[in-house]
């Protein structure tokens, strides 16, 4: 058995608070995994993984990013990060959670797991505080064309002049998700997420998963993604840090694995030497909601165990 604790912490943005949880194993804490969730979802969706890992002696913690889940003040906050630098706010919140958790559990091996948008933040995190980690798991990531990201960021800035940073633009949303459902069409526009119809329906029925990002959050996210093209930023990542990349080979975000490999190649070009990759045949974007999620969780546990070997 494990103990699940929900709590709130102050954001690094004054006046904002974040919903978080900590899943504590019985007995000795062998390692800690901190979660960085994806866009337009919420941290409690990761509780099954947390309980699975806690049963193996691994404490799991994470929070709802600004503008997500229980970290909103009112519904107007959905999909809004912060001004003037939302990218920095989300990153600093992730690190503040690390500092808090390490204060409670000093000298325990510490890992970061990021999914989708959370994987882009995890990859930035590695370049800033990678030396504080024992390794990282990068799930559902990609490597979008730089020119397209720059264009989308420019569109956000132009639209914000006319409509403000709180505006929700159908144009930017369609640019971001263009073609994701292509070839995976079935019942819903969200079928690209995973093959489990019940999970897709649950996602569609939850307002915490069905809002539109504001220009502020899109601009912030694009800003962060563009940093991952900068060799000077990537060069700051510890070269020997163990990394595990996981993705479905039918995941459009990772271009069916091609974008995942480009992300890996960019880190290798910056000197990273300890990278493993696994692509799951037929799996789509949300590996922890997929039909083969038990296999994915077992692979995560197995990799963590391997890193904890003396």
Description:
The chain is an alpha/beta fold. The protein has a single domain, classed as Alpha/Beta hydrolase fold, catalytic domain (Rossmann fold, 3-Layer(aba) Sandwich). Helix content is 38%, strand content 17%. The protein has 10 helices and 8 strands. It has an 8-stranded mixed sheet with strand order 1-2-4-3-5-6-7-8, with helices on both faces. α2 packs across α3, α3 packs across α7 and α4 runs antiparallel to α7. The longest helix has 19 residues.
Write the layout of secondary structure elements.
Layout: E1 2-10, E2 17-25, E3 31-36, H1 47-54, E4 58-63, H2 86-104, E5 110-115, H3 117-129, E6 135-139, H4 146-163, H5 170-177, H6 197-204, H7 215-227, H8 231-234, E7 243-248, H9 258-269, E8 275-280, H10 293-308
Parallel strand pairs: 3-4, 3-5, 5-6, 6-7, 7-8
Antiparallel strand pairs: 1-2, 2-4
Organism: Faecalibacterium prausnitzii
Domain Serine aminopeptidase S33: 28-291
Protein name: Alpha/beta hydrolase
User: What do the pLDDT scores average to?
Assistant: 95
Q: Give the CATH superfamily.
A: Alpha/Beta hydrolase fold, catalytic domain
Q: Structural class, please?
A: alpha/beta
Q: Write out the strand line-up for the largest beta sheet, numbering strands in chain order.
A: 1-2-4-3-5-6-7-8
Helix fraction, binned, reads 25-40%
End-to-end Cα distance, whole Å, is 26 Å
Order of helices and strands: EEEHEHEHEHHHHHEHEH
Domain Serine aminopeptidase S33: 28-291
Protein name: Alpha/beta hydrolase
Pfam families: Hydrolase_4 (PF12146)
Keywords: Hydrolase
